[in-house]
Amino acid sequence: MRIRILGSGSSGNAALLQTEGAQVLIDAGFSGRKLTQMLHEAGTRFEDVQAIFITHEHGDHTAGLDTITKKHPHLTLFANAATARAVQTKLSRRPNWQVFQTGTRFRFRDLEIDAFSVPHDAQEPVGYTFASGDDGDLFSPRRSLAWLTDLGHIPGHVRQRLAAVDLVAIESNHCTRLLEADIRRPWSTKQRISGRHGHLSNDGALEILTEIASPRWRHICLTHLSRDCNSLEAVENTFAPLRNLLSSCAFSIVGPGEGTPTLDLV
């Protein structure tokens, strides 16, 4: 299992997940042209991608879907019914929807997917865990990751899932101090961002990850950083104690609009 975050932040979000039997995208929040370029840089192409898993309908997670699904009709789009309905209103044709029920586990090729509810101001937003492999297989052991962007807090059912994966991709959206000091956003927007259905702050993400601190974690990716109300330095300073606590776990801080190299879960 390998994952490459293609881009992350309020300007767009997408990731490429690869296993022996599947190549899928998680969200498609950039233009079709940009995503095609990103896949080329990752050494693949849309013709080799089979599916897109959508977390919620906001544009920074779905912007490329209309172009992509017209040009590549073979793609399967996975979403719950509420998200599929909301996304479909923005599309000029009906793609190949595969609708799941939030809270269920299902399979696609050699992936086992768990789609679960997260608290965010969208129709029915979800987080995902993806798993592949078999613990009894020496050459292809079971590996898993959790994908969590856009959530205001972490309920108990999400914490349980976080503790059981090898890689955690989670948002660390804003620095509370920088958000409060921001003069470009009205008070109502700041309240939405910092609310329980908004976005996790650096301190909020740190608190949860410190509470769980699973010995299974191999890599933590801190994503969806605000360009105006966060900084790489603020995230680095906030998470320094956790990095010391989890000395065998790698960390990636994904800057606004940036991605990661391919991360191999071995």
TrEMBL record:
<dbReference type="Pfam" id="PF12706">
    <property type="entry name" value="Lactamase_B_2"/>
</dbReference>
<dbReference type="InterPro" id="IPR052533">
    <property type="entry name" value="WalJ/YycJ-like"/>
</dbReference>
<dbReference type="InterPro" id="IPR001279">
    <property type="entry name" value="Metallo-B-lactamas"/>
</dbReference>
<feature type="domain" description="Metallo-beta-lactamase">
    <location>
        <begin position="11"/>
        <end position="174"/>
    </location>
</feature>
<dbReference type="InterPro" id="IPR036866">
    <property type="entry name" value="RibonucZ/Hydroxyglut_hydro"/>
</dbReference>
<protein>
    <submittedName>
        <fullName>MBL fold metallo-hydrolase</fullName>
    </submittedName>
</protein>
